[in-house]
């Protein structure tokens, strides 16, 4: 379950800065979803379908719908800070986002499984109770990750990067951190400096 925060952030981060001032979408099409999933076998631990996963149109539509809901809830979580500018003007209403995430999560029942290796503390994993369709399993897994992350204490560290052109949500590591990475901080400081000197 500690992977959930990464999985939720990675899902949200499929909408990203393209490096040229625009916004790119790693899940722009069915093939994009297939490779995104196959590159995240570690995070999708416990989901047997991940290894030979091939997305179809229905699965892609479902995952993109869950992502829109997750990004709307992320926008709520970072208040009173600003949301990511990538979709700030077309966010789902919160009620709709909650309903969508909960509906996706309920698509697959899970059972707890206790692991307790001799060298480590016991931990619990939630495994699918029944094998279902890939689209349902995947969107349920992603929705469950978002639920665990948003309902947990780490939600309070979530921020939207305020550097020019950046659209990332990230987890703040220390008190006054405003930017997702040092290069964003440099860009933001340069922009402020430029603004000050223009005025
Ligand atoms: Zn950034």
Protein described:
By secondary structure, the chain is α+β, with helices and mostly antiparallel strands. It is 43% helix and 12% strand. The strands form three sheets. A two-stranded antiparallel ribbon has the order 1-2. Helix 1 packs across helix 5 (134-151), helix 3 (57-77) runs parallel beside helix 5 and helix 4 (94-105) crosses helix 5 (134-151). Bound molecules: zinc ion. Zinc ion binds next to loops.
Task: Give the topology.
Elements: H1 4-12, E1 15-17, E2 23-25, H2 30-38, H3 57-77, H4 94-105, E3 110-115, E4 123-128, H5 134-151, E5 158-160, E6 169-171, H6 182-198
Antiparallel strand pairs: 1-2, 3-4, 5-6
Helix pairs in contact: 1-5, 3-4, 3-5, 4-5
Distance between the termini: 50 Å
Total helix count? 6
| Helix and strand run | HEEHHHEEHEEH
CATH fold name: Jann2411-like fold
Derived from helix and strand composition plus strand pairing, the structural class reads alpha+beta
User: Could you list the spans in which at least 5 consecutive residues all have pLDDT below 50?
Assistant: none
For the record, what CATH class applies? Mainly Alpha
The oligomeric state of the chains shown is single chain
Please state the CA-atom Rg, rounded to the nearest Å: 18 Å
What small molecules does the structure contain?
zinc ion
